[in-house]
Design brief:
The strands form three sheets. The chain has a three-stranded antiparallel β-sheet, with no helix packed on it. It is about 0% helix and about 40% strand. It has no helices and seven strands. The protein is an all-beta fold. Strand 2 and strand 3 form a beta hairpin.
Length: about 100
């Protein structure tokens, strides 16, 4: 299975890292920090799944999964708004970024 294929949120990646699906039908902007004012790093395609390495507060965003100020760090210097990620929770699901 390719890393960019859709997997259930309970699936684990090759290194045992839990991955979460991006909301259906969404091409999600990845930012360099926890807000829309940060530089656009890339755009995730529809059907993408992401690891959440850590989470931190940032700009409040409304998306398919509600309104939240939580931002998910998916890689070094890469953040997505948690309101677009199906984590199954309205709160933090992992450690806060340091």
């Amino acid at each position: 299975m390719a890393l960019d294929e859709v997997r259930p949120e309970t699936a684990l990646g090759a290194r045992g890292v839990k991955r979460y699906p991006v909301a259906p039908g969404v091409n999600l902007n990845v930012r360099s920090g926890p807000g829309t004012q940060y530089r656009l790093v890339k755009v995730l395609p529809q059907g993408a799944t992401v690891p959440i390495n850590c989470q931190q507060p940032g700009e409040r965003v409304t998306g398919p999964y509600g309104t939240s100020s939580i931002w998910d760090c998916i890689a070094n210097g890469q953040y997505v708004a948690d309101a677009y990620i199906k984590t199954g929770s309205d709160g933090y699901v992992t450690i806060r970024c340091s």
